[in-house]
Amino acid sequence: MENRNNSSLPVGVIDSGVGGISVLRELVKLMPGEDFLFFGDSANAPYGTKSREWICETVLSHTARLKKRGIKALVVACNTATSAAISTLRAAYPEMPVIGIEPALKPAVMVKDHPHVLVLATPGTVAGEKFQNLMHGFEEKATVSALPCPGLMEFVEAGELDSPRLHAYLQEHLGPYLEHKPDAVVLGCTHYPFVRDAIAKELGEEVPILDGSLGTARETKRRLTAAGLLREREEGGSVIFENSIPEKVELCRRLLGQS
């Protein structure tokens, strides 16, 4: 009975800013009947430069507030926050599905036999134990290079998705990989899919670019179904946006395609 009542609650989605909307897009496509409550912490972005302790404390605080308002599940739509806080969140809320995201290395290493995979991520994600373990888990199947990209998510936070300044940044960071291009690129930050087209222009359209958004959406649907929490509506769900910088809400709507 409790699950049937809880199934009408929204799914909470949290991110360090607006990047998690790349995950929210896939969630809405896959579960159009669900309601979603998205919170972006743009005032404290980027999380990738913060300590693990700070991230855990901050994410726990945001989650407690959303839980008090009423959510039936939580999606941590941030690679850095997932790496730092997902185990702490699951221990704090054992009764609620808590789903994180990780870089899409598994499909990337399957593009060919022993490929070179380049992972673009925040410094915090690259340095995190979760990512290091993930990367080492594939070292026999692929050559995996991690490229920290400090400052890239700030372009997305500013709504600057295809500017000369962005391309100059990408040329500087991707330059060493242009002569011998990687076989696949993994976007290890949920902000980065919004600059996918700009990255493709620099690397060439022939290089596949992958991210973990769809995998996270599928896992969320699986977990909701298993818990008896999935809404049976085929459509009609709503999305509520909140941000620690209220002026960012309009950018959130634009990134989701609502305006």
Keywords:
259 residues; 4-stranded parallel beta sheet; 15% strand; 5-stranded parallel beta sheet; Rossmann fold; alpha/beta
Report on this structure.
The model has no long low-confidence stretch (mean pLDDT 94). The chain has a five-stranded parallel β-sheet, sandwiched between helices. It has helices spanning 2-6, 21-30, 52-69, 79-92, 105-108, 123-127, 129-137, 152-157, 164-174, 196-203, 213-226, 249-256; strands spanning 11-15, 36-40, 73-76, 98-99, 116-121, 143-148, 184-187, 209-211, 239-243. It is globular. The protein has 259 residues and is α/β, with parallel strands linked by helices. Strand 1, helix 2 (21-30) and strand 2 (36-40) form a beta-alpha-beta unit. The chain contains twelve helices and nine strands. It has two domains: 2-101 and 213-256, Rossmann fold; 105-211, Rossmann fold (3-Layer(aba) Sandwich). Helix content is 43%, strand content 15%. Helix 2 (21-30) packs across helix 11 (213-226), helix 3 crosses helix 4 and helix 9 packs across helix 10.
